[in-house]
Amino acid sequence: MDHYIIRRSTKQDDDKNLNKLFTPVFCPEEVGQLAEVLYNHFPGQEKRYWFIAEEKSTSQVVSAFALIPWQWRIKGIQFKVAEMGLVGTNEAHRGKGLMNLLNREFDQTLHEEQFDLAVIQGIPGFYHKFGYHYAVTLDNHINLPLSLIPDDHGREGYRFRFAEDKDIAFLVEEDKRYGDSFFITSARDEQHFRYLLHEGKQTDTVSDFIIMEDTTSGKKYSFRINHKGFGTGLILSEASAGMDYGSICSMLHFCRKTAIDRKKPYIRINLHHHSEVAKAALYLGAKKSYTYAWQIKIPDEIKLMKKLAPVLEGRIGQSIFKGFTGKYRLNLFTKCIDMIWHEGILIDVQPGTVTECEHTLNIGRDMLPALLLGYRSWGELQYIRPDVAPEVMYLFPDAGSLSDITGLLTDVLFPAEDSWVYCQY
After folding, report:
1. Which of 51, 136, 60 is nearest to 93 (CA)?
2. Most CB within 10 Å of its CB: which of 1, 63, 148, 218?
């Protein structure tokens, strides 16, 4: 490590240095250009959020990544999220532990600046060693052949145009309406949409937002088409909530024409399986294919659970455990987290002690993000990890009602939920 300097972005030409690093690392993807645009234009992307390893002898940037700031909503509550993005190391400098050092700086920032979650969209397998585990659905592949789009619905009655600055307030409102349909979603403001309509066009993530208006009623919808991405199909990556079948078909007609113009053989619906558009596409004969997931790390589990208290109290209040008083424990094997309840109110979340707790769920720390964030129920997690179980059941498989009650209480507190996070760049 004597040959390297670990630093944040401090030099005037670091945007160019990062472009020079990432361009060959990610070739043929134009990630270098994306890094330079994010560096100079993305909302909230401060210079101190770029983590850099520089070779002392040459002053060359040889490894780097960005902390990309997000706001996520969980049932209307805002959560401060840090994405570890654009992670890359020059090939000649790999295997020297540079990413470990940069990640150490990143983790320190998570705690110092009170981020609720750290997330990664990155490649499979690599990031588990840094504490990231799959916990929120990401990047769906519902493939709709162009021939399946019907000609007898929705061809007339709508006009289409590209979104402009005058539409930004509408796009923000549509973003919120769509997000209200899901447990976890992104929260984008006017600055994010201004970036997407302007500077974002200069990057490898370029996309078009389309405004679709009913010529009779004046009702408007919006949707987003990406120019590039995984697969050879035309990617429909956003669509307004509340669209009826006719408006969905009209939108798909527009997408079909665009796909033909761009020589794309099918439409890829990159939306949640339970969205109206995905349901309509599946009804028309689209096929479900590969679905990925966000990799997530929780910097402080107790802090996160306290912030989730209104959600947890709402679930208790609408269940057979209404007015619950007592202690519920998550045994992570290396430590315990106790939730203290009084008459249906979560009055504290604290480290567990050596005392016994009648309602205890055993769950490895690597499984905890999936449980807390609604990606999988404890019963689903038990299929791949048999040690995810109420403690009485885990120790005494033939135990009776106490195990059942703890399992049912866990189902109430942490059910599986539908989540979908729209991309902000």
Report:
1. 60
2. 63
Say how far apart CA 103 and CA 106 lie, in whole Å: 5
Q: Tally helices (H) and strands (E) across the chain.
A: 13, 18
CA distance 116 to 298: 7
C-alpha distances out from residue 379 to 15, 370, 415, Å = 47, 12, 10
Indicate yes or no: pTM above 0.85.
yes
DSSP string of 65-77? EEEEEEEEEETTE
Residues found in the chain: 425
Phi, psi of 301 (to 5 degrees): -65, -40
Say if CB 167 and CB 223 are below 8 A apart.
no
**Residue 217 gets which letter from DSSP?**
T
Domains of the chain, by residue range, sit at 4-131, 140-292, 300-413
Q: Is there a shared CATH topology between the 4-131 domain and the 300-413 domain?
A: no
Amino acid 408 reads L
CA distances to 91, 278, 417 from 370, rounded to whole Å, are 33, 23, 10
8 Å CB contact between 326 and 359: yes
CA 363 and chain centroid, separation: 23
Angle at 312 between CA 378 and CA 112, to 5 degrees: 95
Q: Which fold has domain 4-131?
A: Aminopeptidase (3.40.630)
* CATH fold of the domain at 300-413: Nonspecific Lipid-transfer Protein; Chain A (3.30.1050)
Asked if residue 423 lies in contact with residue 270, where contact means CB atoms within 8 angstroms, the answer is no
H/E element holding 372?
helix 368-372
Q: Which two tokens stand for residue 181?
A: 């349909």
DSSP 354: S
Classify domain 140-292 by CATH architecture. 3-Layer(aba) Sandwich (3.40)
pLDDT tier at 153, thresholds 50, 70, 90: low
pLDDT class of 389 with cuts at 50, 70, 90:
very high
β-sheet bridge partners, residue 208: 225
Strand blocks (E) in 168-233: 184-186, 207-214, 220-226
255-258 long-range contacts, CB within 8 A, separation 24+: 255/149, 255/225, 256/146, 256/149, 258/225, 258/234
The kind and range of the H/E element at 392 are helix 391-395
Q: What is the pLDDT of residue 79?
A: 98
Q: Report helix angle 309-317 to 401-413, nearest 10.
A: 120
Strand partners, 341: 326, 346
